[in-house]
Each structure stands twice: as C-alpha cells, then as structure tokens.
Amino acid sequence: MNYATIKYCDIANGEGVRTSLFVSGCRRHCPNCFNAVAWDFNYGEPFTKEVRNKILESLAPGYINGLSLLGGEPFEPENQRELLP
User: Fold this and answer.
1) Measuring CA to CA, how many Å separate 14 from each of 7, 8, 20, 47, 69?
2) Could you tell me the residue ranges of all domains in the chain?
3) Does this model's pTM top 0.85?
4) Which end of the chain has fewer beta carbons closer than 10 Å to its terminal beta carbon, N or C?
C-alpha cells in the first residue's frame, strides 16, 4: 500500500486534534473529488513498518484525539490488508 500524505496535529479531518493518514488508491472516482490525485494506487510513498510506527507514536500525546483514515479510499481491499492489523 502507498499513502499520499500524513498530517500530524490535524484539526480539519475529525473531532479534536488528530493524525490523518491519506492512503492512495480509489476505484470510485467520485465527481468533484477533492483528492483525485490519490486515486492512483501507486501515488505517494510506501506504507512501511517505520511509517506505521511513527503514526502510532504520534497518537501518544494526551492532546491527540484519534486517527483519521482518508484517501484515496481506505476501504479498498488492497488498503484494508495494511490498515486492519
């Protein structure tokens, strides 16, 4: 799986302060999509153990309210295999 971007201390994509992971890959191609560049499953950078660990570490501070999974499309089967564990 690839990811388009990660936003740490994001206040625009969920309640409170969050880490937001924008995955790559989407087959829906919705009209007026705000992130069409992430439709391509090969867009961005590889989602590695190091990236996963950095995201998990970013969730530790008490002021972080959660993790937002965005896209692309996190529910594409290819992305689920990486995100569900």
Assistant:
1) 12, 12, 9, 22, 10
2) 2-83
3) yes
4) C
Give the span between the Cα atoms of 3 and 41, in whole angstroms.
9
Calculate the dihedral angle through the C-alpha atoms of 7, 35, 26, 9, rounding to the nearest 10 degrees. Answer: 10
How far apart CA 9 and CA 58 sit, in angstroms, is 9
Q: Is there a contact between 20 and 10 (Cβ–Cβ < 8 Å)?
A: yes
What CA–CA distance (Å, rounded) separates 30 from 20? 21
Residue type (1 letter), 70: L
Tokens 């206040």: give the residue. Answer: 11
Distances (CA, A) of 44 to 1, 27, 57, 83, 85: 10, 16, 21, 16, 21
